Amino acid sequence: MTIPSFVIGIAGGTGAGKTTVSRLITENVGESVTRIPLDNYYNDLSHLDMEEREEVNYDHPSAFEWDLLREQLTDLLEGRAVDMPQYDFSIHNRKDERVRVEPTDVIILEGILALYDEEINDMMDLCLYVETDADVRILRRIQRDVVDRGRDLEGVMNQYLSTVKPMHEQFIEPSKKHADLIIPEGANSVAVNILEEKVQAEAAGETGRDWERKDFEKRLSENVGVESSED
Ligand SMILES: Nc1ncnc2c1ncn2[C@@H]1O[C@H](COP(=O)(O)OP(=O)(O)O)[C@@H](O)[C@H]1O
Ligand SMILES: Nc1ccn([C@@H]2O[C@H](COP(=O)(O)O)[C@@H](O)[C@H]2O)c(=O)n1
After folding, report:
1. What is the per-residue pLDDT across 61-106, written as a single tens digit (0 to 9) for each?
2. Do the beta carbons of residue 27 and residue 196 sit within 8 Å?
3. What is the Å distance from ligand 1's center to 16 Cα?
4. pTM (two decimals)
5. Would you tell me which CATH number, out of the four given (3.40.50.300, 3.50.50.60, 2.60.120.10, 3.40.190.80), belongs to the domain 6-39+105-228?
6. What residues have CB less than 8 Å from 178, skipping those under 6 apart?
7. Which of 22, 68, 90, 170 has the smallest count of CB within 10 Å of its CB?
8. How far is the CA of 65 from the centre of ligand 2 (A)?
9. 59 CB under 6 A from ligand 2?
């Protein structure tokens, strides 16, 4: 593999389509890519009981263990394997077991605050922000939280109004300014195809790490549906 790895950050609001974009652009590259959900770095809350964990603001930056993420990302970038924590949404806490993750040519960090931390941003080669209207995102979130995460509708609505929406406005939306590219409507096919091509080239070692980002951005901005954040 090539050291350092090529690191992509994918941020955006809840339900924007971050996971979907990340999955689609890495679909055909096999094991050359590691996808890291930021959720894995939620603080260990084993010292709290379930009722207390239910009250935590999971959309505030303080909910994450940034030191551990910086340390593990550095290790991966420099070619060392890490034992990554895993997250269980049903208990609002980390699982007991960690999973060994080997370094790969491409690393994708994906999560609501993936572009929040300056030091982590400095480690990234390509910063993306997935932008989708809030009404679409909340509808997706209701469906996901009720169906997949075992939450009740009233709880999802309360959480959205009390923490998810205000934290989005205070921290997540403003992190968009760190993006090299903004992807409207989430997994739009033009953006996905071009990014997939880029990931495949990096995974195959076809580009140096001193790739011409500006050329790539220019190509993207020439396509309908993809904006450069520097416009
Ligand atoms: N472009 C899209 N069109 C339709 N549905 C989408 C699109 N992108 C994502 N979804 C759906 O929306 C839900 C949330 O998407 P996901 O990628 O998990 O968002 P995020 O990771 O940003 O929270 C999923 O059910 C997913 O299938
Ligand atoms: N115990 C938890 C931890 C996080 N959340 C919510 O998850 C959202 C982030 O995940 P996305 O896939 O939607 O980006 C975030 O908005 C947290 O509110 C939770 O509900 N419970």
Report:
1. 999 999 999 999 999 999 999 999 999 999 999 999 999 999 999 9
2. yes
3. 6
4. 0.91
5. 3.40.50.300
6. 11, 115, 121, 127, 129, 229
7. 90
8. 15
9. yes
Take residue 42 and report the two structure tokens written for it: 């939620």
**17 within ligand 1 shell (Cβ under 6 A):** yes
What's the pLDDT at 228? 47
Q: Is the CB of 112 under 6 A from ligand 1?
A: no
Q: Give 231's pLDDT tier (boundaries 50, 70, 90).
A: very low
Q: How many whole angstroms separate alpha carbon 130 and alpha carbon 179?
A: 9
Mutate to test the pocket of ligand 1, among 18, 20, 139 (most ligand atoms within 8 A of CB): 20
Q: Whose CA is nearest to atom 3 of ligand 2?
A: 58
Which residue do the tokens 């994918």 mark? 10
37 close to ligand 1 (CB < 6 Angstrom): no
Q: Which residues pair with 42 in a beta bridge?
A: 64
Domain residue spans of the chain: 6-39+105-228
Whole-complex ipTM = 0.97
